[in-house]
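User: I'll paste a sequence; please echo it back and then give the predicted structure.

Assistant: Echoing your sequence first, then the prediction.
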Amino acid sequence: MKDSNLKIYLASGDDGQRKVLQANLELLTHQVELSTPSPAVMIRRCQENPPDIAVVGTRFQEDDCFRLLNELSELNVCPAVAVLEHQDVDRSHRLMADQVMGVLVQPVNDRDLRTAIYLARRRFDQSKLMKQRISELKETLGHNDDEPIDDESEEASP
């Protein structure tokens, strides 16, 4: 898994936060192909052409960062890293259940982002593999539905 030169989409309602995050991402040699204050733009672009990773900040004018993160989770097209503020930490526990792959708390630096991106991508890939394996197992079990599973009847026969 190559962790440099990734295509990154970045969304934050705070211009200062967005600029700092973008500078740190570019310091890691990633390509920030989208930097937007709009959750709707982020969702649309992720649907059209998913990035290698989505980075989501805070302070959106008309939306909540958690709603954006939940929508990205439902799309399930790319790993996501949330960059939250201290007051949001208590609400962040539910993000892990919603498949948000990484959570950082402000202030962050390039090392924090590097680690979060690596772990988010790895967790996303593992999640996809598990879902694929579950589908395979369900399919296998579905083909054997015609055969009854009754361990007791085999033991009772002479």
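The chain has one domain: 7-146. The mean pLDDT is 85.
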